[in-house]
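**User:** My hope is that you can spare some time for a protein that puzzles me. I have put the entry right below:
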Amino acid sequence: MEISTMRMRTRDITYIAVFTALLAICSWIAIPTPTNISFTLQTLGVLLALGVLGGRRGTLAVLVYLLLGAIGIPVLADFSGGIGAFATPSGGYLIGFIFTALVMWGMEAVLGKSLPVLGISMVLGIAVCYVFGTAWFLLVYAQTESPVGLMTALAWCVLPYLVPEGIKIFLALSMSKVLREHAK
């Protein structure tokens, strides 16, 4: 019985490490924008980690990824790292990944792991990330550049990303459906 438990822990750690690496790779695929919020595949990585691994392991993968970035390993967008990356106008979206994970994990715990629940949790998780990230953007951008209004922030930080996020949700949901059976 002890060996079975140990194998499960080793398997969990391996999956968490693989999805942490996937998050880093997704963050390196970036298209810069004038607002300093690059278009990346990070949210695809977050959604895949949670969709495939489930709430507990997926959240751990996101936390490990963010901790690696915080200690200076260049796993974040634009091959950046360090605690300073979280203090930029786009840093709130990084912190928002934690809230995305918690929303998805909470919905999984309450409503189960069905595909419709996963799809709704992905949409809500991304929405929470955008709310937190945009609020952070408004505060930090006002301190580093000049104050901007909510509508300007939405035009810069949310509206251009809605269609790409919808595509990433669709891809993550489709891939999660196929891959989650292998990650048990």
